[in-house]
Amino acid sequence: MTTAQVLEQLASPADPDAHREMTRVGINVAKSYGIKTPVLRDIARQIGKDHSLALER
Question: Which H, E and C letters describe the chain, residue by residue?
Fold first, then answer.
């Protein structure tokens, strides 16, 4: 898996309502996708631990 694939996977479940809610409670959302935590955890499980992926830019 590449960084581009991970970013694409993060963008697909983006929720505009969650993004607005983050803004409302004071979270800086400049680089936020608006993904809820359970969804983010599922994506993290799918990706797994990959040190070389973490080092990619």
Answer: CCHHHHHHHHHCCCCHHHHHHHHHCCCCCCCCCCCCHHHHHHHHHHHCCCHHHHHCC
Kindly report the CA angle at 46 between 45 and 52, in degrees rounded to 5? 90
Integer Cα distance of 57 and 48 in angstroms: 18
Query: With contact defined as beta carbons under 8 Å apart, do 39 and 10 qualify?
Result: no
34: number of Cβ within 10 Å: 17
Residue 7, both tokens: 């970013």
**What is the pTM (predicted TM-score) of this model?**
0.71
pLDDT digits (tens, 9 = 90+) for 4-17: 999 999 888 888 88
Spans of all domains in the chain: 3-55
